[in-house]
Amino acid sequence: MASVLTEPPRATSRGGGGGGPGRSPHHFRRALVLMLMTLVAPGSAQLVAGNKRVGRVALRVWIGLWATALVLFGLGLVFDAFVFWLLSSPPVLGTLRVVLMALAVGWALLLVDAWRLGEPLTLHRKQRLAMVGINGVLCFGVAGSLLFASHVVGVQRDLVSTMFADGTTVGAHDGRYNVLLLGGDSGADRWGMRPDSISVASIDAETGETVLFGLPRNMLDFPFPEGSVMHEQFPDGYDCGPECELNSLATWAADHESLFEGYADPGVEATKEGVEGITGLEINYYAMVNLQGFEKLVDAVGGVELTVRDRIPIGGIGAPVTGYVEPGTRTLDGFETLWFARSRVAADDYSRMARQKCVMNAMLHQLSPRTVVMNFEKIAEAGEALITTDIPQGDVDRFMRLALQARSQPVRTVSFVPPMISTGDPDIDKIHAAVQKAVDPPEKSQDDGARQADPAPAPTSPKDTGTTGGSLGNLRDGYGANQAEDLSSAC
């Protein structure tokens, strides 16, 4: 092989035909072998038939990259958190992007040099054309793949840097991370408006087991944690009248912004304090979901499969009904999924809360790693417009790991709605007891029943009685929003 690759060229014939001196199959095989060597081990062709110094440097780099990859792979097998840290660290991702770009350029140059070392002028015309084609395919294939990988890494880096804050991490409370989930309409000028939906995701810090707590946005007369800003203003609870609903806290805080000095978003902080008072949970972080961005996210992953139990109107409430999401089990696109989650025609807030949790559960279990990788750029683009959060970059790897763990487990849910809880006069002690029962480890809660029995109807406020279309019946029969349950059987 060495003699084949290092044999000096023979004199070429002056004619344009093939088969003359210097145009033997030997030269074609030599040129082909040199390029294949560069494809498998960059620098090996130069070490055998070209600039040995360049070949040695390239081979050392190649071996070093393989050694690094093997070490990282081994660490990832032992410490999965290490992998998630690599995928969520902007400095690491920035370095990897530069390395991939340099590797793409360097490998392409080595392939071109391998083609030169193959002495194309000694080949028959058809052989030269073949070698040019092979070299072009290899250059564009190798360099293009690496540059695309570099682009994906850059998108990931920008997503992490843009979406997540630079703040300090907050440890788990009693072994759980509690994340406040808020939903609202799109537009930068709308985040100060009242949130459309309010939930808390309580996540076990070890197993990823998740419980979703749904809070009616029209809940009245609830306390705040002692020492909080809102407790100083309302020591006896948020009982300032029928307009003082849970989702009005954001507006109240925006009107009293001076009280929230040092907080990035007064509306979120006030809502967080209200939710802490209602549930008894300490909130670690919040995530505010832009509903229009959510529509783009669903489209980016190819839709979500959902079971629609009732005909859901599209539009209404101040606008004409323009269509319906029809009953059945099928894949909904972003537009249909958005209206499935937010439609209020012929339904109340409680049935809508149940549908929203069905969507969250479906997204959690249907977004496979393969789907994310194949649609990563679209997901990242939608994600930047989808979520505003105070989760710091230092905790992103932790939540990535917990999200993967949560996919293999059913999501339980508790919604504090009638008849379990009166939204006009809520029993806070009862809510706290229900929360503690739901977040108990599964091995402890199985014996005393993970699912709550339907409680006796609680007194309702005037707002509670305004249901239409049998929506509370749908809650019991279809969505089970008034008890802790496995959502996978409900939608």
Give a description of the structure.
By secondary structure, this protein is of the alpha+beta class. The protein contains 19 helices and eleven strands. The strands form three sheets. A seven-stranded mixed sheet has the order 9-4-1-2-3-10-11, sandwiched between helices. It has a two-stranded antiparallel sheet with strand order 5-8. Strand 2 (197-204) and strand 3 form a beta hairpin. Helix 12 packs antiparallel against helix 13. The longest helix is centred in the first third of the chain and has 39 residues, at 125-163. It is elongated. It starts with a helix and ends in a 5-residue tail after the last strand.
Question: Summarize this, please?
Answer:
By secondary structure, this protein is of the alpha+beta class. The protein has helices at residues 2-6, 25-40, 44-49, 52-78, 80-88, 90-117, 125-163, 229-233, 249-255, 266-279, 291-300, 334-342, 349-366, 369-374, 376-386, 396-407, 428-439, 442-445, 471-479; strands at residues 176-184, 197-204, 210-215, 285-290, 304-308, 312-315, 321-325, 328-332, 387-389, 412-415, 485-486. It is built from 19 helices and 11 strands.
